[in-house]
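Attaching the record inline, Q. Sequence:
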Amino acid sequence: MADQERRDEPGWVAVVAAVAHGNIHALEHIFPVVLPLMLVEFDGSVALFGAIGTAAYLTMGLGGLPAGYLADRLGSRRSLLVGTGLCVAGCLLVAVAPDAGLVAAALALLGVGLGLYHPAGLSLLSRTYRSFHGWSLGIHGAGGAVAIVLAPALFGTVAGLAGWRVAYLVAAGIGVVLFVALAFVPASSAPPGSAGTFESSVPSPSPRWSLIAVLLLETACAGLVYRGVVTFLPMYYASEVACELPMWLSALLSKMGPGQGSAAMDAAVGGALASVTYASAILGQTMGGWAASSRRYALWLVLIGVAFTASLVGMGLGSGLPVLFAGILFAAFYFAAQPITNMMVARTTSGARHGIVYGVYFTAGFGVGSLAPVIAGRIAGDGSLSNVFLSMAVMGGVAVALRAALLKMVWREATMKPSGTNDREATAPAEVD
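Structure, as predicted:
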C-alpha cells in the first residue's frame, strides 16, 4: 500500500511548484532593482516610489486571507492559475504604464497575484504528497531561495541593457510559460463528499486551534525578524564588512555600481555580500525539508531558532568579516525553519480549512513582518545599525520561546495519540479541482 502511494505521488509536481515559488520571489525583487531607472523616467522622489512599493507589498501580504479561501473553494491548481494570470497581467501593465500612478495600480495588481501563491502552492503539496511531503517542501523552499539569490542580478542586467520595461516584459513571458506548466498539474483528489482516494481512506483531523494560534504568533515574530534583517543587511555589510575585504575584490565590486562615488560602491558591495548570504538559504531549505520529515521536527524547530538567534547576536556584537559569517549562518538557519512550520500547518489543520489557515499564516508573516523596517529604523535612529540586529535577536528569543511551547504541545499530543496513528496520514485532504 505504501509503495503504491509513493508511485501515485508525481515528483514533477513538486518541481513545478518550486519553479512557481521561485517566480513569486523573483517578481518581488524586480521593483527594487529597477527603481533608479523609474525615478529618472518619471522624475519622481524616493519617498513617492517607496510608498508605491509599500502598497504593492501590502497587497501581497493581505492577499493571504482571500488566497486561502480561494484555495479551498477553487482548488489549489485553479487558484495558482488565477494568481499566475494576475502576475502576468500586472507585469504587462507595469511595462506599458505611462505615468507613476498607473505604475502603482499595476504593481498593486501584481501584488494581489503574488499574495495568492503561498496558500495555494503549499496546499497543493500537502494534498499531493504524503510519503514525500517533507521532501517536497524542501524542494519548494529551495526554489524560492534560488530565485532570491539570482533574480536581482538577472533582472538588473536586463534592465541595465534594455530598460526597466523590458525587465517586466521578460517576467511576463516567464509567467506565461509557468501558467502553461501549471495547467498540466493533475488534480490530487475528488471533490469533498465523493469517494476520493484520500478522503475515503483517511479521515482528516480536527483543527488544533490552540497549536495553530501559537504557530501564528511565532510566524509573526519570525516575520518581523526577517524583514528587519533583510532591510538593513546590505547597509550594515557596507559599513562593517567592506573595509576588511581584499582590495582587488573591493575594486571589482565597485565597478558594479552605477557611479564612482562611495555610495555607489557601498551599494555594490552590500548587495553582492547580501547575495552571498542569501545563497546559504538554499542549503537551509534543503536541511529544513529533511527536518520536516523527521519525527522530531518540533525539536528541530526550537534548535534552529536558537541557532539563528545566536547568529543575530553575533551580527550585532561583531565587526568585520565575522559579521558576514554570522549573517550567512543566520540565513541558513532562518530558512531551514520554513519547511517545518509549513508542515505543521498541514498536520494541524483539517482538509476543509487548511487553505484558509495557510492564508492567515502567511498574512501573519508577511503582514506583521512589513512593520519591521519602521520599527527597526526607529531603533537604529542616528546610531549604529548593530542595534537593529540586537533588537531582532530579542524578537528571535520570543520566537524561540513560542517554538518551545509548540514543542511541548506536540509532545503532549503524541503521548495522548492512540498507537498506530500516523501524523502524515492527515496531510493529504481532499480538494476541488
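The mean pLDDT is 75. Residues 378 and 433 are 47 Å apart (CA to CA).

More tomorrow.
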